[in-house]
Amino acid sequence: MPYSEATATISLLPGMPQTSASAGYSLNVSLLTDHITRADNLINAKIASRYDISSFSTNPSLLILLSQDISSYYLMRSQYSSDDQNLNEWTMKFKESIAILDQIRNGDMDLVGEDSALISEDNRKDTITSSTEDFDPTFNEGPGLNQQIDSTKLDGLL
């Protein structure tokens, strides 16, 4: 599920056609949909080390705003030459969005859901399990010739 929608995002771009009756509207909505996918992939890549993005029941409002700003930047960049985009508001919004994503990734900023509750972090990365964790290690500390395999380990693994 994308974080933002093309029809809501295009309303933030006053220079773009705003209705389906206007020339270019369908083309820009199609382009914007592609750019939303790019923006969302960037967002996911930035925050996936901290959050399990597949567990979001709804899109956090902050991610919707970031997706709109980043995809708007991509759309504006595709519409204008590089000389025209160097010092505009979309370039600044893109840089601010990346900085916010870095803060989220680094733990300096948290995500909250629609109910204003903190979204819990993904703790799976801190947990490593093993099929042999309940047995004594094969190489216990002690003299090298005294190493013994846990007698129940082979039975438990079979």
Description:
This protein is an all-alpha fold and 158 residues long. It has two domains: 6-120, no CATH class; 128-158, no CATH class. The chain contains six helices and no strands. Helix 2 crosses helix 3 (61-79) and helix 3 (61-79) runs antiparallel to helix 5. The longest helix is centred in the N-terminal third of the chain and has 23 residues, at 25-47.
Protein topology:
Elements: H1 6-10, H2 25-47, H3 61-79, H4 82-85, H5 89-106, H6 153-157
The low-confidence parts are: none
Please identify the structural class as seen in this structure: mainly alpha
Count the E strands.
Answer: 0
Strand content: under 5%
Q: Determine the oligomeric state from the structure.
A: single chain
Work out the radius of gyration: 25 Å
Please give the domain count: 2
Principal-axis shape equals elongated
Strand count, sense and barrel status of the largest sheet are: none
Number of helices: 6
* SSE ordering: HHHHHH
Percent of residues in helices comes to 40-55%
Distance between the termini: 43 Å
Q: pLDDT average, as an integer? A: 83
